[in-house]
Design goal:
The complex is a heterodimer of chains A (about 230) and B (about 400). With about 230 residues, chain A is α/β, with parallel strands linked by helices. Chain A is built from seven helices and ten strands. Chain B has helices spanning about 10, 35-45, 60-70, 105-120, 130-140, 140-155, 170-180, 245-250, 290-300, 315-325, 350-355, 375-389, and strands at about 20-25, 50-55, 80-85, 100, 125-130, 160-165, 185-195, 195-205, 215-220, 225-235, 255-260, 265-275, 275-285, 305-310, 335-340, 365. Classes of the chains: A alpha/beta (about 230), B alpha/beta (about 400).
Chain lengths: ~230, ~400
Amino acid sequence: MSDYTTGIKELDDAIGGIRKGSNIMLIGPPMSGKEILLNHIMYYGAAKNENAIITVATRESATHILEWFQANNLSLPMSRIGIVDCVSKTMGVTTVENANIKIASSPVDLTGIGVKISQFLEEFFMKKNNQKIQLHINSLSTILMYSNIQTVFRFLHVFTGRIKAAGALGIYVIESGMHDEQAIATLKQLFDGMIEIKSENDKNLIRIIGVSPKPTPWFEYEIEGPNLKISRGN
Amino acid sequence: MVETGIPKLDDFLGGGIPKGKSLVYYSQPGVEGEIFGLQTVYGTLKKGGTCVFVVSSTMPDIIKEQFKEFGWDMNSFKNKLFFVDSYNPLIGAHSDEKYVVSNPDNIEYFNKTITDIIKELPPSTIVFGSLSTIMDLCGEKETIEAVRNWNKLAMLYNHVMVYNFTAWPYSVQTLDLIKDKLFNSVITIGGIAERVIFGQYFGILKSDWAEISKKSMLFRVLRPGGIRIFIPKILVTGPFDAGKSTFVHALSTRAISVDRLGTTIAMDHGHLDYKGFSADIFGTPGQERFDPIIKLLSGESMGVFLVVDSTNPSDFVRAKHMLDITKSYGLPYVIIANKQDLPGALKPEEIREQFHLPEDVPVVAVVAKDKKGVYEAFEVLIDRITGGI
């Protein structure tokens, strides 16, 4: 019985689902479709599996993210969505907090971001009695632009622990090529597995490590509009 | 003494923070600890003091907005509130504030600005918005050394130093130093957790000027309003027709009742926001068939009001029975001698005699329908609840 799934059939078949309490790194080069993949996991989790999704948004505002779903005719069950918007305040955009959006004052303010994550966790877990929760951070790379690796490590140490304690699923986005090997190695200690994306000979490839006993093979994929489609397995 | 501005905390600290002393709000990650520093800024300014706020993790403008969200008008304090901006230089942006730390990842630059401020300004309250951010940027050892010096210097110049600190997993030595040695007083702020954090509390870990008890208070953050002591459940019970629902409505800022044919059949539920307290109030029905509800609600309450009709001594037996149900939970309680305005109403002392109550059990005279005595009764119960934790 799988606790959490990606919603992409070939990947889910290969890994058999992700155990609750897992923290997964999603790593790949810029513009390789990580955002689309994450949106897909979010939509599938909330709409099909009744998961609650908490997204920490450091690259796009909450409104922008919600507009993407609307534009692609994907109806998100809003009672299960929580977005921590770390962008709007820094751009001077007045956004009001509501049931689905909490505002953090900047990507530097890890204390503030932590408070908002905790508040959403409490709302979904205790008040709405939903114990299937996913936390997405998009992206750790933006946060690392403002704070050094030790600082981010300490922050993640606390919240990966909270994800484990709550039996939730954590997915954390990292841009490959932006950080040195040492930094990635330091962070890897906190994760149970990796969704890895790479480009080779004009092909987009994806695989998952650490979730099933053996790494999955590399799957070739294509981005078609709002969808990530596996085109060929190996 | 400089007041912290946090309800009950100043009482527990013997009035506030003496000049020349330092205090740290030591907060677990995920709880709203940084608001304590903000509320102390407001508290200082309200009492006519001068305040310096060191901003590290966001723009000073955003802090000013936060003050507004709490309903605190900072415009009237323009010449008594100064910001030290160590955020805008971090992101390479320009700053309009009076003090700017041009290299926020170098403790020497912080040192210069803070020591200048300590020497220049009259005795003030200097509040650090996020000591942990400074530590992240400048290094644990370097920051601790600097804080040690600032606190020493502040003693000479009679400033009060207040720090917000998020207890991320720094080294054990660092955390121990902060909890034990570096500050005159440590207020811990934590979360009540059962898989996730669902309640927040604060308590005094250390204070070298006041006799402290290891009391913890639940709190809530209201916007507007700020930090409020949170009393999750106060029970209002008593015999049929004693005036319980009237009392709940009289005390509450807003309340609802479920009744039929003039009597309560489920529960009255009210919410009160009064003098730094935020309480949820639950009134039970008085008829005997509802006694299981009293048992259920008592188990989770922090205090009980037992409402009796002062003109109806024959009901006191029933009242005593209901009191015993709630007393078995060891809860603080206050007897409400209601309907004092009616002819034949027994005075509180007479009721005390009838109940055979010891002297230290409070009996308060109330006319619930006119809201007379209700707030006095609330303050008495709060004293018992917060004194007893």
